[in-house]
Amino acid sequence: MRVFNLSFPATLIAVRDALRAAVARFIRLMTEEEAGTLELILAEILNNIVEHSYGESEEGVIALSIVRDRKGLNCSVSDDGIPLPPACLDLRDRDPERPDPSSLPEGGFGWFLIRDLATDLGYHRQDGRNLLAFRMPLEPVEILQEG
């Protein structure tokens, strides 16, 4: 089992560095496609936090934790910015087909991608902190190590 924990400032530059570090930590334990999916999911989540949770204030901190087990990656992201709007995670009455990005409100396609690519997506707010968690299924490690 591998673990990755990182806290970093809520800035776009720090997000870019965090993405690079997170993918590098697990790159040998996943396919190239899986690495791209992880980077896409995390980029959408982390950039949304910087742009919407903290807005103009660059005084926030984001904490990212990823644990690799036999079934995939368990990821959690926390911050103390504004609460996540419930519509971001509302799966009811959603068309499962890929929407036209131009038909969605700002950020709508990003949340579609997150919901489409991640499993067990959940959100909780407690004591002024946001916690977003998800799982990203991966091919079993044994299969990757054979090839």
Automatic annotation (TrEMBL):
Residues 9-135 form the Histidine kinase/HSP90-like ATPase domain. InterPro entries: Anti-sigma-factor_SerPK, HATPase_C_sf, HATPase_dom. Gene3D superfamilies: Histidine kinase-like ATPase, C-terminal domain (3.30.565.10). Keywords: Kinase, Serine/threonine-protein kinase, Transferase. This is Histidine kinase/HSP90-like ATPase domain-containing protein. It comes from Thioclava nitratireducens.
